[in-house]
Amino acid sequence: MAIEHLAVERLSEHYKSVRSLSEKLASRLQNEDSIIQAMPDVSPPKWHLAHTTWFFERFILKEKNPSYVPYNPQFDYLFNSYYETIGSYHPRHSRGVLSRPSMEEVYDYRKHVNEGILSLLKDYGDHIPEDVEELVEIGLQHEQQHQELLLTDIKYNFSCNPLLPEYVEATLSLQTDLRSLSTYINIDGGLVEIGFTGTGFSFDNERPRHKVWLDSYKLASHPVTNGEYISFIESGGYEQPEHWLSDGWAAVKKEKWKHPLYWRKTEDGWYTFTLTGEKRLNLDEPVCHVSFYEADAFARWSGKRLPTEAEWEHAMASIPIEGNFVESEAYHPVIRESHTRSPIKKAYGDVWEWTSSPYTSYPQSKPLEGALGEYNAKFMCNQMVLRGGSCVTSQSHIRPTYRNFFQADKRWQFSGIRLAEDLS
Amino acid sequence: MAIEHLAVERLSEHYKSVRSLSEKLASRLQNEDSIIQAMPDVSPPKWHLAHTTWFFERFILKEKNPSYVPYNPQFDYLFNSYYETIGSYHPRHSRGVLSRPSMEEVYDYRKHVNEGILSLLKDYGDHIPEDVEELVEIGLQHEQQHQELLLTDIKYNFSCNPLLPEYVEATLSLQTDLRSLSTYINIDGGLVEIGFTGTGFSFDNERPRHKVWLDSYKLASHPVTNGEYISFIESGGYEQPEHWLSDGWAAVKKEKWKHPLYWRKTEDGWYTFTLTGEKRLNLDEPVCHVSFYEADAFARWSGKRLPTEAEWEHAMASIPIEGNFVESEAYHPVIRESHTRSPIKKAYGDVWEWTSSPYTSYPQSKPLEGALGEYNAKFMCNQMVLRGGSCVTSQSHIRPTYRNFFQADKRWQFSGIRLAEDLS
Amino acid sequence: MAIEHLAVERLSEHYKSVRSLSEKLASRLQNEDSIIQAMPDVSPPKWHLAHTTWFFERFILKEKNPSYVPYNPQFDYLFNSYYETIGSYHPRHSRGVLSRPSMEEVYDYRKHVNEGILSLLKDYGDHIPEDVEELVEIGLQHEQQHQELLLTDIKYNFSCNPLLPEYVEATLSLQTDLRSLSTYINIDGGLVEIGFTGTGFSFDNERPRHKVWLDSYKLASHPVTNGEYISFIESGGYEQPEHWLSDGWAAVKKEKWKHPLYWRKTEDGWYTFTLTGEKRLNLDEPVCHVSFYEADAFARWSGKRLPTEAEWEHAMASIPIEGNFVESEAYHPVIRESHTRSPIKKAYGDVWEWTSSPYTSYPQSKPLEGALGEYNAKFMCNQMVLRGGSCVTSQSHIRPTYRNFFQADKRWQFSGIRLAEDLS
Amino acid sequence: MAIEHLAVERLSEHYKSVRSLSEKLASRLQNEDSIIQAMPDVSPPKWHLAHTTWFFERFILKEKNPSYVPYNPQFDYLFNSYYETIGSYHPRHSRGVLSRPSMEEVYDYRKHVNEGILSLLKDYGDHIPEDVEELVEIGLQHEQQHQELLLTDIKYNFSCNPLLPEYVEATLSLQTDLRSLSTYINIDGGLVEIGFTGTGFSFDNERPRHKVWLDSYKLASHPVTNGEYISFIESGGYEQPEHWLSDGWAAVKKEKWKHPLYWRKTEDGWYTFTLTGEKRLNLDEPVCHVSFYEADAFARWSGKRLPTEAEWEHAMASIPIEGNFVESEAYHPVIRESHTRSPIKKAYGDVWEWTSSPYTSYPQSKPLEGALGEYNAKFMCNQMVLRGGSCVTSQSHIRPTYRNFFQADKRWQFSGIRLAEDLS
Ligand SMILES: [Fe+3]
Ligand SMILES: [Fe+3]
Ligand SMILES: [Fe+3]
Ligand SMILES: [Fe+3]
Predict the structure, then answer these.
(1) Are B258 and B229 in contact (CB under 8 A)?
(2) What is the per-residue pLDDT for C182?
(3) In a mutagenesis test of the C interface, which of D41, D99, D156, D163 is the best target, namely the one with the most C β-carbons within 10 Å?
(4) Using the beta-carbon criterion (under 8 Å), do C84 and B356 form an inter-chain contact?
């Protein structure tokens, strides 16, 4: 009992800690910034703040507290993202027209729902039902995902403004370490297992743990750097169709890609836009903001390939989860390495690593029941898996089995490249 | 001399009065509202405030004050609307991404430019050059046009938010008069003259005054009302191609038009969205927010036609400019009539009246020289002329010769219908 | 009576003569060519042949011969172009999918309808009703319009094939005359009349004859030549927004226009694609295949302007209708002039001349009743008037009052430029 | 040696036999049909005939016969499909504008290349190099793929013509067998192998044979029938988002899908368009012309799932390749079953079966070198694998390891559904 009580308290503390990070991240914005949606893929900051709150209201307060009165019944329409089984929702590409509710009102909404959740938890005392605990946990994981998107989307929005605003002032440079040269590590294959098992939170798309046959392979010790990527650019990579998938080449021509998103070439060399404003490109940092198509073309140009997600997970499973996460407040990939003893460096944090694996369900997997079954499963088509978290991911959010996924042409995520190779 | 000095003082007062109205109109908004652009045709309120200021800075301070230091050199790019000869500019459809400069900074920009202009005028003392006076006058007319757009665009933006925000609370109802029935007034034609002549300000597109032959004709005493327009709807007007121009019918099908913009049919009857929120449709008010296509189709269905702009001007030239303008703060067409003795009512204010005339240059017209030649002339294709001003136009802005113009499918302006007929 | 009988005979002969030209023009094609639709604006040759036939079947045989059995009831759907009041029709942009009916069947259809019409005319004997005569006349005028389109569309279709097929072999060169230099002719204005009156056929859009005030003006003696147009290109005309209407400049940038349609620049000079294959551009020929936007920009760059349609008609009304028409079988504008004594040359034939007049209805005009009222009237918006016919127009089809009309961005018509100027 | 000589003869016979089928299939068309491209995904019949010929000319005659003179040098541009490393090519979506070369010329081209290939083979005599043999084999496999597309595309083209032409007259009905009810067969999993090994032709995408872990599973004995699919429709399958992938649901709404492609509901029941014209839907035939999204939604609605391609291949590997192929000349899925003793029926022929596997490269796979490396590998993104061949596939073209692939929204292929299930 005392232990259960402790569990509720720990959950409440966890709740307050995760929720308050959203507000901290948003506090650096002006109200005018809160409503920008510079392309359909991004959401306005205010919308993230309200939608994550609605998630707790709709899936917990409304379901578990019979006397709960919704803050505003129209919010079910405004802040439902894509749960078809819950009802119709405001079109995703039009979130930028919602100047109301104002930021002030959204903060009030957050406060209202926070009070509701904390008081609900308190009421359970030492008998918190497992499904409620699970729902709160999902809600917090969900909020962490949106915290990452909040930063990712602000970066994109700001990059479209010729004034190139800074989200935050740069901290003292963390770029003091020398980058080691990338080497290739031999990994033994065989009939291995991947996927989540054990206690603690995981999403339905990480389960069940299952067998996979892997031929032995080699994995790069480091993610690809800006300097390495520039060699690809300068050797004509963006003009030579032979490196590219057919859809990738079509994207290169249609979008006129010549370099990663946010880069700009001047007479004076390469610059990149960051959350601390535009800055000179550091050649030793991991390359970031490339699409799957670019990652794949770079790999082919290099005579290498991308790892499958099974290869990635099998190699990384035992490496401690350390690195450059959102907690570092760098908001940008760095050179500095964590002091893990593994020969594989930067497995976690810095940049999401594209794998060669399309996002599909695991054998015998079971999506969640009800509307939350829509959380992950319905996106299992036309997307590629990324692994490892980035500099805008919460450290506590990442697991070796964590699967992120985006369409192959997306570049506004903090996405990078780690190469693999067959063992000949 | 004393008179000239007086002229400068009057101009300064006029300047202050017009400029401050923009700020008054914007003061009812929250900062989040200031940056919304719900479709490419509208501009965010903040952009209007900055662009009109830039107009004074760019065309007067930079040209006439050699020591003037621009507030921010990037504003030439951000707040140029479409003057190609001045340089490149931020794409019109992307104005909604400019969360910075903030509203606070824009107000500071306005203050800075206001001080510049007023001090320039003061420096001229009693020798203000004619071209400077003309430029200030153009700048103020320009600001008045954007004040109208500010309200028009806010209305559109707010209408896209399911919360249907009110721009301002409704004042006491002005709807006390009974609407008279529309009659048709015979107007004598012949070889008449239209176009501006004399003193006072006019745009280049209103000049020169020139001869036009008009057959005698009839003009409706009143604009078409909501009630009359509902008869068109209920008789199947939107389903019968025979009333419509080919392009109009294509628009009806593509846009799924079934009624004017902002209308909504409920079991309880018709409602319309206004700057004071959604309200029950008043059948006796002038119909508003129709496209040229709808105006034209309604006229054909009625067995009538729209007047040409020459017919309109010839009939209205001697009617005093009174009516429901922005100064009334109704921000909506009303029933009440001004007490003019003319048998033609509501010639000015309430709603812009579509004419059957494409917007073209007058015989022997000369556009302004330099970049301001782009103000009007380059739009003389694929647009239709509207006349008479509306409930969101400044009274001092309107003249009998004033030509407004929009594409035939635009509906977000306060645009309505007055019918005409051949004399058989 | 004898005279009436003669009228029927003449009408029958006229019918046979016009109808057989369509077949002659199509006889130079292979069956594979008959079904191409290289852009939505053009129609496949076979469709023109069938649609013009359907016009006679639907508006005459079905209406006037109660015992007429339609050749194929589905043809009302397949070959109705745009008559909404007649029923639904196959989408214009999908005419290119109709491989059936085959060419063989379409020729059979033509034969079937020809027999029907000629036998109907014969049955009337000397009492042919006026409306039938009028309908046959409209049908033939309609067929002549489509004969022009047939050639215009074949040219466009062939130009999209890298093999650049010849529609017909070039005849002996007609280009022996020297081109005279263009001069400007003074034309007296005043209260003039334009529009059709008298006997003979005219379209509803040419009526009624009506008064127009014209200031006196100057009109160029010749259409603009390729050589003159090249000066515009070489002086940077396509890179300088100041010459262009706003919509025109948008078209230049979007469509990447750098020269008229069908031109190609090689190291060896300019070439143009014609119905006799690609050939070296003759600098003294009238420029052809320019949009209204290009015509208007060229005029502004020249310090001149385009004439209004009233100016055009007033100046050309008394000039004999001679020139380079489809009967010449050149299918291309030529240098050679007709030997008219008028100082204004090439008023008719060679190239359609863009005017500055939007296409609108004449004062007090009455469209035809019934479905044929859709023939012209419903297109009176967003189009510009062209005058004078071209090298692919039938000579018998043209009148001084004839109004052709196209959207301002269309270039696949044989459209050129004649300049005008104010009399200062 | 005698054996080698025999090999050349056999190859020549095989060449003649495959090539002549294309001409036989095209012989049922009129020349007007040969040039239709009713949507960007399909190619005109004539283009297929020319492109397959170009493939032999370009990859064999030009490479292996130094004295070969190309039939027409422009054909490299016109009939290259997508080989970027060979040079630029005519845009895919514009193949329908190529009325020339005429069908007559294309047949002449085929004859010319056939003579070239056969004479080349003859010249080798008993020393045919392995790579030439391989290239001829690829060319023939390629031609078989295009024969299937030829039929598939004709069907689509004809379906867009309201006259609904028949490609061929229906033969005597083959629909005499009673359809057995579908049952589920248990298949043992384990560490199995899939992929091609051994002698005979295979594409690079089928290699190498490699290990895959499979949990044991159940596979349906029969493909899903029209009758079963109608239950899905009638239970509201197309209106209920819960069955659909997110991208699939978006496609349903955008394309307004309500049933498989080619179906039409009348008061009298369901009809479907076939290569023998429109006919009443037979409820016992395998459902055909569904997208992956529909196959996946149907499976979810059924409480089942689609098999992976490894599950499919593992289960089918030992079943003889018999069934309803193009040789049957039914050109439509049938009820009749082949007399295989396997409990799994209709493994091959009738309909391609969508699997749940995205199309990716096999572990350690090596694409072909040179331009032919583009044949398969560059499409390995955003496509799903289909297995088993269809009623328009050549029987000799199919192998258990054969991988077909299309985007998840494509429906014009002869694609159907076989369900699978986890073993609980
Ligand atoms: Fe979410
Ligand atoms: Fe402006
Ligand atoms: Fe027609
Ligand atoms: Fe091919």
Answers:
(1) no
(2) 86
(3) D99
(4) no
